Structures are given as structure tokens and as C-alpha cells.
């Protein structure tokens, strides 16, 4: 249990650090091209694990729906997040994305009436209030520009996409296992991401990229593959409600790295939002809860 929670915490840190790294290179690389490279590298890392996994092979009639969900989970989602950090800061984007658990639970309620314990619900609501404080505080202080609204809108759409795909994945994950389904879904997303990379206006020629850009792209891709495995291990060995709450570590990580490496100035609203999100995370981790049916997958 303790190792599973450490894996969940490490995944939260990975999500936040990958968003900061994406913010640093997305204008140079392009949103679609960065997504293609990210999940191309992650797929290379995960493929050996999928080939060695046990269980039934994926049925031919399930390949298309899994691929379509994968285009949403790994294609549309990551493209939206890359556009989000192109127009707004990774700190703000990660705070919006930290609402993924409550959005996923809301869709689950709408689809099947599945429930959640009051403790976990209260913790997630605390995170949502933190995001509201951030947006309201920055808007009142004049820190929220029109471009930020575009970025945060894309982050909200990315969160909704991830929540919807997480609910749709359920039967296929139970039937074939997470690694096999994820590899097929991830491979399917490469085609639309590659097409977006070819037609988008943002980005510079690969020959003009400095060494730091190649390093950051490698970090984003490999950390995504490693982070995904850690996330799956955590979900298999700890209650999903507690595991998903560790996504709250992503905005904490993003803010810390943005201040250190991107010279971002933390506002009072941002600080208060972080306190609320950390409080929600601590409140959730007080006691283990029963495991809900929906498994929430990170970006």
C-alpha cells in the first residue's frame, strides 16, 4: 500500500513536470509535433511490457472502439494540453487539470449512478474551490489576459476529454488488461497527432532546435511511459479514490518548477489555491476508502 501511494505521488509529480517542460518547448516544437514525439517515445517504452503481458488478445471488433477512445485520450487530450500551455502558464493549466477526479466522478454519476464516499468528495471539491480562487484572484488583479482564457478553456476541454475517455475505457480494461489497451490506444493517437504536426503553423525546423529542446522532448516522452506504469501499479494496489487525489501534486510541481526555471512570479491567489489543493490531498489520505469502479488515467 505504501509503495503504491509513492507511485501515485511520483505520477502526480511527473504530470506537473511534463507540463512545465511542455510549456518550455511547445512554441518551438508545435503542439501536434510535441504530442506525436511524446507518445511515440512512451509507446516505444511501453511496448515490451505489452508484449509480455498475459491475458486474452484484443478482439478484432474491439480494436476500433479502443482506437477511437485512444485518439481522444492520447491525441485530442494531449493536443489540447499543449495548446493550453502555449497560451497560459503550466501552473494554471495544471490546476485546472487537477479537477479531473471530480469531473470523472460527475460523468460516472450521469452514466451509471456510481457513488463516492463523502470524504473523497469533500477533498476533490476542495481542489475545485482552489481552481476557482486562482481564476477569480488573477482576474481581479489583472493577471488574467485574453490568451490565458484560451489556454484555460483548452485545459478544461482536455480535462473533460480525459474524464469521458476514462469512463469509456472501463469494459475494455477489465477484459484485456490496462497495458494492452493503452498501447493500442496510444498507437492510434499517433496518426492524428502526426497530421496536426504537419499542418499546424507553430514550430520551427528540427535543424534549428537546440540540444536542450531534444533533452526536454526525451524527458517528456520517457517520463510519460514510466509515469503511466507507476500509475497502473498504484491503481492495482491502492483505492482508486486516494490514488487519483495524488494528481493534486501536479500543480504543486508545476508551480515550483515554473518559479525556479521559467521565472514565474507566484500570486497570492495561486498560493491560496495551492493550499486548498494540498489540504484536499491531505484530507483524502487520512484513511483508505473503498475502491470505485472508474479508473482515472493521467494525461
TrEMBL record:
Residues 4-135, 151-284 form the EamA domain. Keywords: Membrane, Transmembrane, Transmembrane helix. It is a multi-pass membrane protein. The keyword Ion transport does not apply. It comes from the Bacteria. The chain crosses the membrane at residues 32-51, 63-85, 91-108, 120-137, 149-169, 181-199, 211-233, 240-262, 268-286. GO terms for cellular component: membrane. InterPro entries: AA-Vitamin_Transporters, EamA_dom, EmrE-like. Its main location: membrane. It is found in: Membrane. Belongs to the EamA transporter family. This is DMT family transporter. It comes from Paracoccus onubensis.
Amino acid at each position: 500500500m505504501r509503495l503504491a501511494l509513492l507511485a501515485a505521488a511520483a505520477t502526480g509529480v511527473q504530470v506537473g513536470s511534463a507540463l512545465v517542460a511542455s510549456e518550455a518547448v511547445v512554441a518551438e516544437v508545435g503542439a501536434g509535433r510535441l504530442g506525436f514525439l511524446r507518445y511515440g517515445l512512451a509507446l516505444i517504452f511501453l511496448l515490451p511490457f505489452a508484449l509480455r503481458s498475459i491475458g486474452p488478445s484484443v478482439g478484432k471488433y474491439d480494436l476500433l472502439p479502443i482506437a477511437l477512445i485512444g485518439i481522444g485520450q492520447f491525441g485530442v487530450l494531449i493536443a489540447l494540453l499543449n495548446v493550453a500551455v502555449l497560451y497560459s502558464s503550466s501552473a494554471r493549466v495544471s490546476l485546472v487539470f487537477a479537477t479531473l477526479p471530480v469531473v470523472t466522478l460527475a460523468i460516472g454519476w450521469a452514466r451509471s449512478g456510481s457513488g463516492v464516499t463523502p470524504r473523497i468528495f469533500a477533498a476533490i471539491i476542495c481542489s475545485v474551490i482552489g481552481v476557482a480562487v486562482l481564476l477569480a484572484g488573477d482576474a481581479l488583479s489583472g493577471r488574467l489576459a485574453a490568451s490565458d482564457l484560451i489556454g484555460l478553456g483548452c485545459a478544461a476541454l482536455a480535462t473533460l476529454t480525459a474524464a469521458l475517455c476514462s469512463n469509456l475505457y472501463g469494459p475494455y480494461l477489465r477484459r484485456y488488461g490496462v497495458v494492452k489497451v493503452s498501447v493500442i490506444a496510444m498507437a492510434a493517437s499517433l496518426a492524428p497527432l502526426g497530421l496536426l504536426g504537419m499542418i499546424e503553423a507553430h514550430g520551427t525546423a528540427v535543424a534549428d532546435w537546440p540540444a536542450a529542446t531534444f533533452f526536454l522532448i526525451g524527458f517528456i516522452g520517457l517520463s510519460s511511459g514510466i509515469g503511466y506504469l507507476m500509475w497502473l501499479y498504484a491503481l492495482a494496489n491502492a483505492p482508486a479514490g486516494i490514488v487519483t487525489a495524488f494528481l493534486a501534486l501536479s500543480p504543486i510541481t508545476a508551480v515550483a518548477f515554473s518559479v525556479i526555471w521559467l521565472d514565474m512570479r507566484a500570486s497570492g491567489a495561486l498560493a491560496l489555491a495551492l493550499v486548498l489543493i494540498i489540504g484536499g490531498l491531505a484530507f483524502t489520505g487520512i484513511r483508505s476508502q473503498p475502491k470505485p469502479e472508474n479508473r482515472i488515467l493521467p494525461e
